[in-house]
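Troubleshooting log. The previous structure file for this entry was overwritten by mistake, so regenerating from the original sequence record. Sequence copied from the archived sheet and checked twice against the printout by T.R.
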Amino acid sequence: MDGKPLDREISDAPADSGADALLAPLDTQAIAMEAEVGAEADPAARPRSLAPLKMVFGAAVQYPRQIGLALLALVITSAATLAIPWRFKVIIDEAFGGTANAEQIGHAFQYLLMIVLILGIGTALRFYFVSWLGEQVVADIRLKVQENLLRLSPGFYEVNSPKEISSRMTSDTAIIENVVGTTISVALRNSLTAIGGIGLLLYLAPSLTLGLLIGIPLVIAPIVYFGRKIRTVSRTSQDRIADVGAYVTEVLSAMKIVQSFGQERRESARFASVVEETFATARRRIVLRAAMTSIVILLVFGGIVVVMWRGALAVSEGVISGGTIAAFVLTGGLVAGALGSLTEVYGDLLRGAGAASRLAELLEARADIAPPARPESLPQPPRGSLSFRNVTFRYPARPETAALKDFTLEIEPGETIAIVGPSGAGKSTIFQLVERFYDPQGGTIRLDGVPLTAADPADIRARLALVPQDGVLFSANARDNLRYGKWDASDEDIWNAARAANAETFLRALPSGLDTYLGEGGTQLSGGQQQRVAIARALLRDAPILLLDEATSALDAESEQLVQQALEKLMAQRTTLVIAHRLATVRAADRIIVLDEGRIVEQGTHDALSKAGGLYARLARLQFTHAAA
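Regenerated output below.
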């Protein structure tokens, strides 16, 4: 848990005045709010109901033991807090009143120390259990959300940004952690303190209590009024701070361009302007904070003076004792602080409800591609045949445009099919449909004679091995990246695959061999090395159908030659579909399929298509003429 929730629970920072104890939680929340709630920028999107929190409470009640211990600690600390003013009353009346001997005075202070000890231990236990509960609930929700996200088809991520989903998994869960681990505890603690404190005040001095209850709203009202204004300005302030971060990221990422074009002075001036706007917004917040502090201090200490004045008159008349007045003032301060904190709890709960609502959307999302109730088994052993018949497909995010139109293609086991055509012709769409990331709106696709929609997607993908264009690697060691397609592969199997992929030499040269961390996205390796790791991963997969998506498009000549040699070994005795813009890599294909606007416009061998004078011949002429030049 970070510092902000702790500040809400236990204020241990030095304060300028007693009024700061009332203002600090509000100001801390106002400043931090937008930083914590990146996904809540649109006020209209915030729920006005706490109903979405049912999901959070449902997760929390799975831990009744921790809830019970937290509540017990909460009751003990609230009781101990209210016992302190009462002990001060006894000490002042007896010890300072001259009616007690040394032993009685010692006992009185020993009781006070014991209460303080109980308060300290109880607060620590309460903080531990509520914080533990908040973290555990967040962990459970994150796990459930991630499990559901892994089941969703790629179509979901076309209309839902992964970056925004990541924000929900971090910012929104942090808000929920704050609600469970702090807000609810604060609400219960301050409710108990307020109720118990008012009862104690009525017992100590009923007439003074009625005057105090009238004065408390006068103190809370400006806090609420100015608090709303501070939160509005704080949102703007956070936007300006975000502008600073965005500017710094943009300029530092393009530092070579900035310096190449000699724009250092201009960028410095731009940054100064952004910083000045940030300062101006912060200054408005500071002015509001100063005004609120001044007014609240006036009302708080003015009220205390009036209460003490009336109390002094009552003491002089012998109606109440000096200890009673001291206990009354201390208890009144506790009640005022508790009520001030409660004014912010509802806003915190609404923000928590908004976060829970956004996470519930991810939990309730259902995959468009799911196994049928009774999936049909694929034949054994696998043959590696594919059949497309009158397939028409539109992406969910682009329903007005057909990526494939009446597409028909029969692929025999062991055949190598090259798919070429202009960008946007539908080449990658074929791979997406073969892996059943999407279902076509028309026509059927069969794998070894079984319709893809009748089979379990996991069984379909088990018969496929993909080598993507960019050789996607994970932030893990070399071993885990290599065995990603076959997690139970032995080191011997891994090295055999690496050798076949022309990757053994550089892998053995790594500092820790297969245990070497490859960096985020495999940044410790060159592009050609990453691609050969991807090929070795596909070799380990040992699937009957191989999908090659522009596997050599971004490589230099030497790397391309090594990768091409590895691909030839990988393609042996497998059904292979190859997407390529560089036509020199597909000359040896059994058939070349030429796509244009989602339709097959030509098919045949390289030589036959080159002589036909169609789209392929034009593409080949452009590429080979350019290469010769």
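The longest strand covers residues 386-393. Archived copy saved in two places this time.
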